[in-house]
């Protein structure tokens, strides 16, 4: 009898993964909850629930990541937050 050996081939797939950045929103003593929520809905495409949760986290924790993605996608969103008077940065 002969034994046939099955060879398992491994295929390595190289994927190009771009590093993800985050927009971090910081707490301030100037903006109201309503303004922050409305701005997050507008600038980051949040639902009202998401925006409210982020506003609460920012208020109690001091900061919150509000959007994650590639830098080129985050830059205009962060600019909108800054133009609305919020404190944010891309990290």
CATH fold call: Ribosomal Protein L30, Chain: A
- Shape by Cα distribution: elongated
Global mean pLDDT: 90
Give the count of helical stretches: 3
The name of the CATH architecture is 2-Layer Sandwich
InterPro entries: ClpS_core (IPR003769), Ribosomal_bL12_C/ClpS-like (IPR014719)
Protein name: ATP-dependent Clp protease adaptor ClpS
Pfam family, one: ClpS
GO biological process, one term: protein catabolic process
Question: How would you describe the overall organization of this protein?
Answer:
This protein has a single domain (21-90), classed as Ribosomal protein L7/L12, C-terminal domain/Adaptor protein ClpS (Ribosomal Protein L30, Chain: A), CATH 3.30.1390.10. 43% of the residues lie in helices and 19% in strands. The protein has three helices and three strands. It has helices spanning 33-44, 48-61, 71-83; strands spanning 21-26, 63-69, 87-90. It is elongated.
Summarize this structure as a short list of keywords or feature phrases:
19% strand; Ribosomal Protein L30, Chain: A; 43% helix; 91 residues; 3 helices; 3 strands; elongated; 3-stranded antiparallel beta sheet; alpha+beta
Topology record:
Elements: E1 21-26, H1 33-44, H2 48-61, E2 63-69, H3 71-83, E3 87-90
Antiparallel strand pairs: 1-2, 1-3
Helix pairs in contact: 1-2, 1-3
Brief write-up:
With 91 residues, this protein is an alpha+beta fold. Helices cover 43% and strands 19% of the residues. α1 (33-44) runs antiparallel to α3.
